[in-house]
């Protein structure tokens, strides 16, 4: 797999600013190909183009490449294997990630690839950090939320039967029961 840099890579033979492949300009590439020596020159790899994909600032380094649905940068490796850009950044600048560990953002900014903002942690630590910083979707922020905080207050104050309340709000009886008992949406 060949990588396409966003900025120009300088020819390693003559120093020309416009390369076409294997870090060579068109003239050098043609000359070396005729001599059957292309195998001696490196193909552009992920490390050659990684730094072209983000913007360095004093704070977060914002990933400008492809993002997944959660806002994390995605970086394509050889064999079409995609990795999250912050994980690649950590391995590129800091070192290998231990087996079974995740890379946590101390800045809480998913597109950030600044290694100073990344640290190794367990999934449990990452989940606890998200809960402590209230980055989880609870209550009305949850994707499947059907009742507003006002609805909850009305349900708790109501003397109407739970089955009637469940029918009116379009939720299950057990959901109304947990709201009335105070075990749900405190």
Top keywords for this entry?
two-stranded antiparallel ribbon; Homing Intron 3 (I-Ppo) Encoded Endonuclease, Chain A; 7 helices; 11% strand; 186 residues
Give an overview in words:
The protein has 186 residues and is an alpha+beta fold. The chain has three domains: 1-44, no CATH class; 46-132, Homing Intron 3 (I-Ppo) Encoded Endonuclease, Chain A, CATH 3.90.75; 139-181, no CATH class. It is 32% helix and 11% strand. The strands form three sheets. The chain has a two-stranded antiparallel sheet. It is elongated and about 90 Å long.
CATH top level class name of the largest domain: Alpha Beta
- Average pLDDT across residues? 85
| Global morphology | elongated
Question: How many helices does DSSP assign?
Answer: 7
Structural class: alpha+beta
Largest sheet: 2 strands, antiparallel
Strand order of the largest sheet: 1-2
How far from one another are the termini?
53 Å
The total number of structural domains is 3
- Annotated CATH architecture of the largest domain: Alpha-Beta Complex
Radius of gyration: 26 Å
Low confidence ranges: none
């Amino acid at each position: 797999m060949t990588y396409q840099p966003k900025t120009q890579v300088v020819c390693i033979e003559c120093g020309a600013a416009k390369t076409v492949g294997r870090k060579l300009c068109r003239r050098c590439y043609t000359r070396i190909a005729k001599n059957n020596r292309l195998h001696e020159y490196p193909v552009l790899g992920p490390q050659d183009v990684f730094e072209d994909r983000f913007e360095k600032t004093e704070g977060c380094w914002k990933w400008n490449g492809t993002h997944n649905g959660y806002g994390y940068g995605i970086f394509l490796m050889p064999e079409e294997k995609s990795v999250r850009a912050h994980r690649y950044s950590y391995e590129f600048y800091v070192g290998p990630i231990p087996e079974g560990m995740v890379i946590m953002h101390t800045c809480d900014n998913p597109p950030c690839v600044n290694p100073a903002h990344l640290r190794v942690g367990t999934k449990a630590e990452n989940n606890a950090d998200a809960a402590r910083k209230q980055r989880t979707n609870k209550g009305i922020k949850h994707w499947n939320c059907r009742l507003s905080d006002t609805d909850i207050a009305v349900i708790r104050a109501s003397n109407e039967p739970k089955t009637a309340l469940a029918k009116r709000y379009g939720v299950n009886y057990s959901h109304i029961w947990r709201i009335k008992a105070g075990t749900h949406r405190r």
